[in-house]
User: Fold this.
Amino acid sequence: MNIDCMKTKTLMILLATAAMLVACKSKSVEEKLAEYTAWNDSFIEQYRTRLLSLQEDPEAAEAFADSAYNAYVDYNKKALMDNLDNAVGVLALKEVYSEMEDDELLGVLDGLSAPLEGQDSIFVAALKEAVASRSTTAEGQMFTDFEVNGVKFSDFVGKGKYVLVDFWASWCGPCRREMPNLRAVYDEFHGEQFDMLSVAVWDKLEDTVKAAEEEKIAWNQIMDAQQIPTDLYGIQGIPHIILFGPDGTILKRDLRGDNIRKAVAEALGR
Assistant:
């Protein structure tokens, strides 16, 4: 059996198992919770085993990982919607909230009636605050100012230039992988019309300083910002890259990869 067939067969088994487990609504919360946990444990075990077997074929491994992730998200979204009134729904929400648009997420949060206490209550409250923050800092809105150790965001944004802002951390692999893209954009466009700013969040100052030197960050930086800007802008994952207009208007949010340069070039008319 070739790799594609094996990959497809594995995913079909996983999805069939997911459908069977989620479809049963007559079981107690304890039974649903046990089955949800068992499915996740089984999924992860099969995923790791299959990925290990593909380690000498990076292309096939990447394709399988993408497909498996999509299957995982689909299962958890179904589990979430079928269990808004119990603990399984909260567990599933934790797995997929970052894959949901704000309108969809807000609908789920409004419909969530599961008993909440402790960390679950804190988690749901934080999600609601994040959605609210993103609505006031959405594309087309004016920037929200903040201050860290005497340095203001408005010292760099809203000063007559387009400004690309990268919210990042030294320990964040995807953040570090975006650095070559950011350096290329800075080298190509930096000047009278365009500038860049890195804002270090959720990080130790000494680690940020070391990483900034390693990544050869030549543009402006705000360090040790922790949760101040991420709370204000509803940022729950990094890197989060935002393009601001000369007056401070938010033009584009959550830019990644080739879209970084594309957004900057379009804004500058190049």
